[in-house]
Amino acid sequence: MRSYRQLFRTPEYTPFLLSFAARGAAQTISGLALATLVYRATDSPLLSALSMFGPQLAQVLGATFLLSGSDRLPPRSTLSGMGLAFAAGTALMALPGLPVGAVLGLVFLQGLIASLGGGVSGGLLNEILPKDGYVLGRSVFNMLWGLIQISGFATGGVLLAVLSPRTCLLLAAGLHGVSALVTRLGLTARPPRSSGRPSASATWRTNALLWSSRPRRLTYLGLWVPNGLVVGCDSLFVSYDPRHAGALFACGAVGMFAGDLTVGRLVPPDLRSRLDIPLRLLLAAPYLFFFLRPGAVPAAVASAAASVGFAASLVLQERLMSLTPDELAGHALGLHSAGMLTMQGVGAVVAGSMAQLTSPAAAMTVMAAASTAVTLALATAARRPRSGGRAPEPEPLPS
Fold it and tell me: For the chain, where are the alpha helices, taking DSSP H only?
């Protein structure tokens, strides 16, 4: 599948995309509003970064205990229920006088709920689209996410200039409700992809199975670590330049959109498979120069250029699907999502802590250098032949 016309003629793809759009708009507006609210209350780069990217830290618990539900729960009811839970949690954050600790607790709870959503959504997309349409379909989701961030952060910046952060949070709660409604009305009720009850033990067994393959391990690490370290840079935009943070986020989203459009639609598959390392290096390189403390315009250009590198995830997700049995597609993509978001949360905490001790500019430079080093180390490991030279044994499916 190489055309958008074929893609949008696929049944259920469009309502699934619209539901994602409403959810993404809610997350973008609420994230900026919450980071601004917390920064105004505490003047802390760390707490501001945690409020925006803290939900990702809960993903590690979801990956440990909840991911077996990715393939063992009915997708439509699970996603619509999660939308309602997000609407309620975001509305609670808007309560006047709510302590910062309670706000961060709600943020963590939302992250725990979201850890299941990545697997359910990824598995459902893999089920809706034919095999040769996954990368194109996924790239549209990524491009839409970029457009949502462009408009969401720009709109959020305007809204925060005329409305209070709490009012913006209530708007985001309404958008989460819209996402739940579109999911419920626009998607067909499907049975779970796998039998059995979700459980922590089933999650652990399947995680161990997915992690046991060296090619999959390297693919997961490539999806998680360089990305998470660079998101640590992004998490400092509010403290680096509070006045222009929305513009920096929006320009990053422009770069993300351009990268996903190019890699998902224009680059031939044979060339695409070789672009993951160059794209991951591009992801970090522009932030290496932030020790010079660039102004708003060069910082925005750097953010846009770096964000093109996020398209590496398309290449690596395609590789992950080629290495994974269909019965475990949802769990495998859920583990990717949970691990990536966990690393983004870790990146935000490390970057915020470093910025507390030094400066946001210095912390961004160090995080970019670490991301570059990890990418080069993984590239070296991928070229190293396996010891023993034996063919891998067939993988048993978990019961």
Answer: 4-8, 13-42, 45-53, 59-65, 69-72, 75-93, 100-128, 134-162, 165-186, 200-211, 214-234, 237-240, 245-261, 269-272, 276-284, 296-307, 312-322, 329-357, 360-383
Say how many C-beta atoms besides its own lie within 10 A of residue 103's C-beta.
Answer: 23
Q: Rounded to whole angstroms, how far apart are CA atoms 148 and 179?
A: 14
Burial 315-342 (b: 16+ CB within 10 A, else e): bbbbbbbeebeebbbbbbbbbbbbbbbb
Please state, as a whole number, how many other Cβ atoms lie within 10 Å of the Cβ of residue 96.
Answer: 6
In contact, 314 and 142? CB cutoff 8 Å = yes
Residue 31 · residue 155 · CB < 8 Å: no
Are 272 and 217 a contacting pair, CB within 8 Å?
Answer: no
DSSP 395: P
pLDDT digits (tens, 9 = 90+) for 278-336: 999 999 999 999 999 999 999 999 999 999 999 999 899 889 988 988 778 778 887 88
Residue 160 has what pLDDT? 79
| Per-residue pLDDT at 45 | 76
**Tokens read off for 344:** 């983004």
Measured at the alpha carbon of residue 148, what is the angle toward residues 106 and 321, in degrees to the nearest 5? 85
pLDDT of 390: 41
Of 118, 108, 58, 51, residue with least CA distance to 82 = 118
Q: The pTM is what?
A: 0.68
Give residue for tokens 């409305």. 163
Give residue for tokens 């893609």: 7
Q: Could you say which residues of the chain have pLDDT below 70? A: 1-2, 53-57, 59, 63, 385-399
Question: How distant, in Å, are the alpha carbons of 61, 202, 294 from that of 196?
Answer: 21, 9, 54
